[in-house]
Every structure is written in structure tokens, then in C-alpha cells.
Amino acid sequence: MDDQTRVEWRDWGQDAFDEAAEADAPVLLSLTATWCDHCHEMDAETYAEPRIAANINDSFVPVRVDVDRHPRVRDRYNMGGFPSTVFLAPDGTVLTGAGYLGPDGMRQVLDSVRTMWQTKGSGAGRVPRPLREDNPPAGRLTSDVESAMLGQLTEAYDEVAGGWGGSPKFPLPDALEFALKRDREMALRSFDAVSANLLDEYDGGFYRFAAERDWAGLQHEKLLDTNGALVRAFANAYLLTGKDEYREPAERTVDYLTTTLWNDEADAFANSQAPGEDDAHTIDATDRSMADEPPVDEGVFAGPNGLAIEGLLTYHAYTDDERARRYAERALETLQDDLLEDGVAVHALEGDVERDADGEPIPLLANQARVLSALTTTASVLETDALTDATAVADATIDRLRDGESFLDGPASGAGLLERPLRPLDTNVALADALLEVAVLTGEERYREVARETLEAFAGASDRFGVQMARYATAVSRLLEGPLVIRVAADPGTDLHRAALRMADHEKVVVPAADDLEAGLARVERGDQRSDTAETPAELSERVQSVLE
Predict the structure, then answer these.
(1) Could you give phi then psi for residue 90, rounded to 5 degrees?
(2) Average pLDDT over the chain, rounded to whole?
């Protein structure tokens, strides 16, 4: 990305901060992404300007970080989007920060930071609030969490344009899935808005977000994690409605993931696709077929691949789509063979792997949670042997990242503010939700207790969670009520197992090859409820209805 700039970028690491300390100069941290159009624009218009580049090179220690390859740096220094332009003291504390800066804006900020540094020095540095408040407010879990989130969604719902909130408009797959079970009309109108506005009708796949409340101002980058999550969400909408208008966007996105975002050499999914030329998405199909394809970041990352695997297997479970199953299996094999080491998901397939003093790969909570969900979905849909890796991932995460009652995003060590602990709510919730499924699939209650304690660790602030955290309410509901569990004494792929997967509750857990039932039978459970056994798909449907009622 930086080949057109004149800035002498350093890599992220302690050496850059040591250089800044020795020179008594601030660090200019540039957070970028390969898919980020504004990042490329800033390189071409700002960092390529000779006087600006000379100013930076002479008075600052410039450091460039790819946010997909260094997520812990991203999460500590993100200024609300990318590019993020952050000025740091040599101890890693933040002097000031901004997003995109054109040449004039950059000149003003450089002068301002230089003056600040000359007058205050490191004393002007501050630690961002999430890193100052180490322990989240704990509390008791009650059904009020679910009702409060539904209230948040109702209040934020856009009656005119669909979706939630004003601008920018994101697809919010977790909110879509939460609302499916609790206000289906609101959910389906939002699904309709997402598919009508963010789905690329020509190439398939979903754009990242829209800048305006009415879904105008599309940001045309396509990210693997967004698309993997939306395949799952739309597959679940199809499960509950049976309507092709929800199946088809999932199908189109599966096609996109298995073609454009498939890295054939790695046998896994690539990370993202850049937007391309501004007018490429508005020309007609004939001209578009002749246009150059926007570039793809071929990097293979564990967490986004986990989301894609989970999405494809969910779609396969409801449709028997063989393409989705085949590509999910191929990516899963790469993940298990090349990206898992003793329960730790290595962040990237290629490049230097961050390791601790003992030579062990450093676990990142987002990777652990997403890979764990992929493995529990695999165990439920395809192959129960995946539980071996699932329990290894769960145990490694608990052993290495659990601190008190919640989880850190990674080890509290490294350059800059990496040494400060961060407890991200979203990935704590994702892990807790996955641990609930491990508990059901293995019958080991200890995983459920860790999930409970993790959710309780944030409960004191739950009344302030916005719609972006709908999954917290989903996980609390599953914990308190118990998810719908369908135990099937048959192997994956049998008619009874396939029927269990298609029972209309997308928050259920299906346990194949259950050893506490006679062969060929199934039973439905929820909390203390136990149904009579069922032998046929029709009988199973009756048992599910009796438990749900």
C-alpha cells in the first residue's frame, strides 16, 4: 500500500518506540487496510506530497500497521475507522488522533502536534478509556437483558429505510438474528433492506456498509467476516420463513466466497476485496464484465475463515447445498491442519507468527471464539470428531486468556499499549456463546459455568448496550432458558439428523450420534423439559412443537 508514499515507514514493534525515545520525537501511527479505499487515497494525496513526507520523516517516527494483520494494535488505537492517523508518545500513550487527513489538514495537525510535544512532551499522552477501566461492571443475569435489547432495537428501528440507527448503516447480522426470534416483522424488513441495498447483484457478496441513513453512499469493499456472518443470518431467515428471497442472497454470497474470495493455493478463504474504481459498481452488466476485477487481499486469517465455515455449514444444513459443504470442509481442513497448534488458532497462514517466550503461538480471543464456533457447528452438522479440536480450543482459551471472570483479547504484553489488558465485550460474548454449545455437545457443565461467569462479568452495564451487542442478549437468553436441544442417536447426514437441523429455531443445538438414546431415535430437550422419543422426522416435529409450547 505504501509504495506510492514518500514516508519512511517503520514496522510496528519496540524498536520504533525505542527510536522515538532516543530521538525525543513523537510516533506517527498510520492504521490502514488493504481493502480501505480512503487509505489508498491518503497515500496518494497526502503521504506522497514531498514536503509533508519530509516533515514527517524529520520530526516523527512513522509507523504503519495493517489492521487485519495486527488486530491488537487496531483495537487499542483505532480512531473510529480507517485510515486512523494517531500520534503517540514514545511510551505508546496517545497524544491526538484523527481519521483521513488531506494535505492541508495534515500540515495543520503536524504543526499542532509538534507544538504540543515541545511544550508538554510525554505529559500530553493519555491512555484511552477502555484501557484505563480494566474490570467491567459485573451483575446478575435476568430476563430483563433480553427485553431491554428488544427495546433498544425497537427504538433504533428505521421504519422508513429498514435496519437500525441513522448513518452510517451497517448490516448488523447479530441484531438481525436476535430480532428473527423476537420481532420477526421488524427483522424481515431489515433483512429486506440489507439485501436490497448491500448485496452486489452482479458479483454476489455484500458490501461493508452504506454511509447514509437511506442506504446511499455505499462503501464497496467486501470483507470475509461480514459476508460469512451474513450467509449464516440469511440462511437462518430462510429456515424460519422458507422463502427464497432469503435463501437467494445467501446462495449468491456462497458463490462469491467460493470464487472471488477463494484462495486456491491456500485452500481457504481470502480476507477481503477492495472497492475498485468508483464507477465500476454503477455501469451495466456488459461493461462491468469487461472491467478489471477489484484487487483481493489473499491473506488467510483464522477468525474470518471460522466465520465463513460456520456460515457455509449453516446454509448447507438447511439446503443440502454441496458446494457450500465442500468448500467449508476444505477451509476447515486447512484451519485444523495449518492454523491450529494445541488449541491455539494461529492468526495468519503466512508471515511471522507472534509467539511467546516459550515459542508457543500467541492466542487472540477473536480467533479463538470464531474458530470454536466453526468447530461446534461442524460437530453439529457434519462430523462429531470436530469436538476434539473444539474442546482443545475451549481449554486453551480458558487457560491462557481468562483473567478473573472474563477474557483478555490477548496476552497483556508487547510494544506501546499492548501491555495494557483489554477485555473486548463482543468477543467475550462470542466465546461465551460458543462455550454454551460446547457444554451441550460434550455434556461437560464446566463450559457452561465459564460462559455464565463471562456474561455476568459484563451484566452491570447491559442496560447500556446498543443494538450492535444484540448477541449478548441472545447468549443470556440461551443460558437462562437453555437452548432448544435436539439429541439424535444417528450419524450426521441421516434423514432424522437432517430433519433435526431444519427444525425452525435457529438458536437450537443439534447433537448427533447421541449415546444416551436407542439407535435411530431422537429427543427434544429444553432446560428441565424432556420430550418423548421420536423415530421419524414427522414425530420429531411434533416433539419440538410440544417443547416450544
Answers:
(1) -60, -15
(2) 95
pLDDT tens by residue, 459-515: 999 999 999 999 999 999 999 999 999 999 999 999 999 999 999 999 999 999 999
Q: Specify burial of residue 140 (Cβ count, 10 A radius: 0-12, 13-18, 19+).
A: exposed
Residues β-bridged to residue 347? none
3-state DSSP assignment of residue 359? coil
Contacts of 84 (CB under 8 A, 6+ apart): 29, 30, 31, 77, 78, 97, 98, 99
- Do residues 381 and 316 lie in contact, with contact meaning Cβ atoms separated by under 8 Å? yes
pTM of the full predicted structure? 0.96
Quick one: which of 362, 354, 433, 357 has its CA closest to 394? Answer: 433
Helix (H) or strand (E) segment spanning residue 61: strand 61-66
| Other beta carbons less than 10 A from residue 22's beta carbon | 10
CA distance 330 to 341: 18
Give the integer Cα–Cα distance in Å for 509 and 193.
29
Strand partners, 64: 30
What letter represents residue 214's amino acid?
D
Q: CA 351 to CA 371: how far, in whole Å?
A: 20
